[in-house]
Amino acid sequence: MSYLVDTDVVANALKGRPEEVTLLTNLSSQGLAISLITYGEIYDGIYYGRDPQANERIFQQFLRWVDVLPLNRTVMRQFARIRGHLRRSGQIIPDPDLLIAAIALYRNFTLVTHNTRHFSRIPDLKLYQFS
Q1: Which one of 16, 65, 67, 90 counts the least CB within 10 Å of its CB?
Q2: Farthest CA pair distance, the chain
Q3: CA neighbor of 9 nearest in space, from 20, 19, 22
Q4: Distance CA 128, CA 60 (A)
Q5: What superfamily would CATH give domain 3-127?
Q6: pLDDT tens per residue across span 67-80
Q7: Rounded-to-integer distance, Cα 68 and Cα 54, Å
Q8: Distance CA 59, CA 88 (A)
Q9: C-alpha distances in Å from residue 22, one per residue of 28, 30, 72
Q10: Which whole number is the average pLDDT over 103-127?
């Protein structure tokens, strides 16, 4: 099983929060990845944070042991299906979250996120169960 790690969990791990660091360390043997969306969201935080150089160094170290998954045409079609389904049911969520979910579904990965309020709306998306 492989895991796609959402931006909130990555940000917490990069800040050194022990629970998140331990979680990602434990899951790493099963394969970890982040989306290109998360990559951009983390860089947004780096560029406009207190210490961009130090934060970028920490992120670059993190990237040594995770894959960054790109968008492609199949992912974008998955995105469109999810978005249309949620729009019809009046439960739309932000596009970056939809793109992350589309990548997880396309790869059949479990999404590691604390944002279950948004992601639980997406049919067939596997969410990591925090204990």
Answers
A1: 90
A2: 44
A3: 20
A4: 25
A5: 5'-nuclease (3.40.50.1010)
A6: 999 999 999 999 99
A7: 21
A8: 38
A9: 10, 14, 31
A10: 97
